[in-house]
Predict the structure.
Amino acid sequence: MQIKNKSLLIIVIIVILLTVICGCIENGNIGDSSITIKGKNGFYSTIMDAINDSSEGDTIQVGNGFYNETITIDKTISLIGENRVNTIISGNKTGDVIFVTADYVNISGFTIKNSGDEYSFGVDSGIEIKSDYNTISDNNIISNGNHGLYFTSGSKYNKIFNNIFKENRYGIYFNNAYENNIYSNNFSLNTDYGMYFGTQSNNNIISDNVFYENQYGIRIKSSDKNSLTQNSFINCKRGLYFCCGASSNIVYLNNFKNNSEWNARDGVINQWDFRNLGNYWDDYNGTDNNGDKIGDNPHIIPTADNQDNYPLMEPYEKYI
């Protein structure tokens, strides 16, 4: 009987130890021997330690794992994850997950999640950029309470491509940011906006992105001379919206399909075609008598005296 009791006690102790160990692995990188962070002088226990020990131009390689920390990048470095699905940085719902203040920073290969929550009234973001010439690529930027990516006032010449922005409040928020290039990203299930332009966010290029099942695909407010081409707005509640003095923006070769309330609204004056090429509208009922795949009659953009003069009869070919 005593032997059985001792055996049972040993089993209980083993179960408890396994539970504790598993909890440590899931909730942070402390004590997880499977996690590898390789920097300038070898291996590190946290990403921030590796950054602090780095020099301008260094590359920090981060192996698969769950990294429960917030990071500030104040040097020109490359931060490279092993795998965008399994290399996870979580901010524990506090502030920014990654705050970039240096120029020419490269971040790729991560899942970036759990910035400050949606009720904080701050700019808490998966990534906040307060600098220029950065490249953010091949990441999953998901489940951040406020912004997936936030451009702080004056940020310019950044390239954002091949990322997934999903289940954030805002996918990307522009705050007086200009001449950035946002292309080949996927925005889905963001609760307020896939992309939001605050005031004076001018001359940005938005191309080859897919906006799927967001509340709004894009809202552009008081911002001018942005170019939107070859994007698809699909199954959103509202597609593309210009308001509050946003003018001289150009929109062509985009697809608007199955957006439940409306495809587009323009409260000011913007250009909805370029060089005899407009956009595809699933609610366009015009004809194409000469078979050139361009509608014979304009497509009217509601709420202002705007129209697409050359509506496409078929979706832009990249997304057929």
Residues 2-319 form a domain with the Pectate Lyase C-like fold (CATH 2.160.20). The chain has one domain: 2-319.
